[in-house]
Structure formats: structure tokens, C-alpha cells
Write a structure and sequence with these properties.
The protein is mainly α. It contains 8 helices and 2 strands. The chain has a two-stranded antiparallel ribbon with strand order 1-2. β1 (34-35) and β2 (40-41) form a beta hairpin. α2 (16-33) packs across α6, α3 (52-64) packs across α4 and α6 packs antiparallel against α7 (124-143). This is Fungal-type protein kinase domain-containing protein.
């Protein structure tokens, strides 16, 4: 599940990028815990938590911290490791993580700006400038990924 949908509070409307991000986590899960020789899945305890906030924190770490990313794939089957190797041209996962980490960084910036907006007294000009910054970050966040960009990362045609 996408990080936006795991946050505390009312979830936003489901967007196509949430589905793409969810696919990233499914792909990462399969590459991290699938054993093709024994045809079985192992467990990924970090993403199998009791609360959505715990799952959010662990997935957030996966996107934002290289050491967490590496830990997720530490026991990946050798035949699947190339899909997750960091900074590898053939790694779908690390490339997608890079994109979704930028989206998450925008979300963090937007929340910080909204906090400033709601917690301070500002002149109309300053309030308008802050609102413009929020809108710009929202637009930038939405432009980080598209279906076409996602399919290009996977090396697939967008008309599939």
C-alpha cells in the first residue's frame, strides 16, 4: 500500500501513482522473499506489522534510507537480486525507489508548509506566497511519475 494511504488521518483519494507505488512494494516483496527453488515465500516482518503507522514507518525507511533498502534484500534469491541491486542499470526496484522517494520528499515538504500555514499569522502577501509554494510542491510531486515513465523504467511499452 502506498505511503499516502498509510498516513495517520483521513486518506487522500486513490491516485494512479498510489497503484504504481503499491506495485513497487509488491515487486520488492517478491524479490526479497520469494524462493523459486522451493516455490515458497518467506516473511518480511518489517511490512507485516499490526498498525498502518508501523508499516508506513518501515516502508518510509525503505524509500529514504539505503541501509534499510539493503536490509530488505539481504536474503534475496540470487536469481532475483539483479532486480534490486542499488545503482544497477537493470534494477527496476532501485530506480522506482528513487522516484517514489522524491514523491515522499515532496509530501514531507507539503506537510511542513501546511503546518507553517496553519500555525502562524501572516500578511495576505506572505500567506499567498506560502499557498503558492504548497501548490508548486503538489504539482511537482504529481509530475515525478506517470504511467509512461513507470513502464519505461520497467522497459515495457506503455500500451500494454
Amino acid at each position: 500500500m502506498a505511503l499516502d494511504l498509510l498516513r495517520q488521518g483521513k486518506p487522500p483519494a486513490n491516485l494512479y501513482r498510489h497503484d504504481l507505488e503499491s506495485f513497487l512494494y509488491l515487486l520488492a516483496y517478491v524479490c526479497a522473499v520469494w524462493d523459486p527453488e522451493n516455490k515458497r515465500f518467506d516473511r518480511m516482518h518489517a511490512w507485516e506489522r499490526e498498525t498502518l503507522i508501523e508499516i508506513w514507518a518501515n516502508k518510509h525507511g525503505f524509500l529514504m534510507k539505503r541501509e534499510v533498502y539493503d536490509e530488505v534484500f539481504k536474503h534475496a534469491h540470487p536469481s532475483l537480486k539483479h532486480l534490486a541491486e542499488y545503482e544497477s542499470e537493470s534494477s527496476w526496484i532501485s530506480t522506482l525507489v528513487g522516484v517514489f522517494s522524491l514523491i515522499e520528499a515532496h509530501a514531507t515538504t507539503i506537510m511542513a508548509l501546511q503546518s507553517v500555514q496553519s500555525g502562524s499569522r501572516r500578511s495576505p502577501q506572505a500567506a499567498a506566497a506560502l499557498e503558492a509554494r504548497i501548490k508548486k510542491n503538489e504539482a511537482d510531486r504529481e509530475s515525478e511519475i506517470s504511467y509512461e515513465m513507470f513502464m519505461d523504467i520497467l522497459g515495457a511499452s506503455p500500451d500494454v
